[in-house]
Amino acid sequence: VYLKPDGTVHAVGSDNPSQYANRGTRLDTWTWENIVAVSASSHTVGLRKDGTVVAVGVNKYGQCDVDKWTDIVEIYAGDNHTVGLREDGTVVAIGDNSDGQCNVSGWRNIVAVAASEKTTYGLTKDGTVVSAGKKGYGSSWNNIVSISAGPYHLVGLKADGTVLQSGGCDTWDNN
Predict the structure, then answer these.
(1) Tens digits of residue pLDDT in 131-145
(2) What are phi and psi of 17, to 5 degrees?
(3) C-alpha distances in angstroms, 175 versus 15, 153, 162?
């Protein structure tokens, strides 16, 4: 999935329409307008300029039910859940919660979010990582300025340019 400068979203890949149950396929983004960010997994999520969110794709766990989200500044699609960061530093999550990955209601002062297969991550203002769900990667990290997650790992960027990773990657070249 990619975002063009005019705010339109384009997607490439394969679809299996039998999985999408009235939500459109995960590539069906051509009607979206005023999008400023996108994220994709089993579903595709778009963040509009006005802070609302749209989603299409597999909705087996309700991960596409983001229509009522407002004041969102960042989004992330986990495999079976969706995470949103609000302007006030709180986090919302919806979808599969079988491992507690949507238990983020008490999170405050969050500046970035990420999601992996069964985990939601948050980056706090003071540069620490919090998590909800199956994996607790990054909990001992500090001075982190950015995070990103894949299905089985978490990557963090420190202020000095050092890259940290936990999870499915065995090695990482910091050069």
Answers:
(1) 999 988 999 999 999
(2) -50, -25
(3) 37, 20, 9
The 8-class DSSP code of residue 18 comes to: G
Nearest Cα residue to 41 out of 80, 91, 88, 95:
80
Residues 6+ apart with CB under 8 A from 90: 107, 108, 110
Which residues have a Cβ under 8 Å from the Cβ of 117 and sit 6 or more positions away?
A: 78, 79, 80, 134, 151, 152
- For CA atoms 116, 104, 84, 131, the dihedral sign is negative
Alpha carbon distances (Å) from 138 to 3, 28, 147, 153: 29, 34, 9, 10
What gap in Å lies between CA 83 and CA 148, rounded to an integer?
13
Nearest to 174 by CA among 154, 155, 151: 155
Sign of the alpha-carbon dihedral angle for 76, 73, 163, 94: negative
Say whether pTM exceeds 0.85. Answer: no
Model confidence over 2-13: pLDDT tens digits? 566 776 665 545
Q: How many CA atoms lie within 13 A of 42 on its CB side?
A: 22
